[in-house]
Write a structure and sequence with these properties.
MetI-like fold
Length: 262
Amino acid sequence: MSGGRRWLDFLRRWLVFLVFLGIWELATRAIGDPYFPPPSQIVSSAIDAWFGGTAFGDDILPSLGRLLAGWGIAVVAGVVLGVALGRSPIVTDYLSPVFFFARSVPATLLVPVFLVAFGIGPKMEIVTVLFGAIWPVLLNTIDGARAVDEVKTETVRAFRIPRAQWVLGVVLPTALPKIFAGMRLALSLAIILMVVSELMGGSSSGIGYQLITAQGNFQLPQMWAWIVLVSLLGYLANLVLTAAERRALAWHPGFRTELIEA
């Protein structure tokens, strides 16, 4: 895609978003429902809620720290285990029922268990994010590591390439598109679980704590401001990860084909 067309598509998407905001503003002002404040009021409350007082340092940054810690551990553990299991089909076949059973248990249902095991605090919230985020990375990495074709495998055996070079130079690059897909899905889940763990875990700080506090005090514009912040974090995180993916996979033939077709 040319640079001019890319900018045109970017402006077109934002124009649609601005039109949506305008419709939202007019509709909410016409309805006059206090539970659905107009975007202009939400933005005004957001500036005070996010940057007024100590909210940024006491709530936003700690939430981001717990989010990145849980997601980062999930990515490292998921990739390492996924590559190992992806190249061990027999072990994977035995463990697959356990994986799919564990993945089917929502992490939010385990918050009471994590509370008992780790107590109220950042450790419980990080474990909640970790448990929910690891499965997309792990299962996608296993699938990607299995995709190494037989020609490459036989070539490595013929030339007796060391196992470390084989994993880092062949298996991992082959699995990277799947790994990034799992990382994006895991990041979306991690943001949700970060907020839910703060809502349900009795936290005394964080985005989820401020959201539930604003709701309890009927500060509805502030409540919407924290909801908007969660959406904004999801958008920015996906934007950064997509940019990293484009740079990391610029060499990949399939990925380059998708970029040209786009």
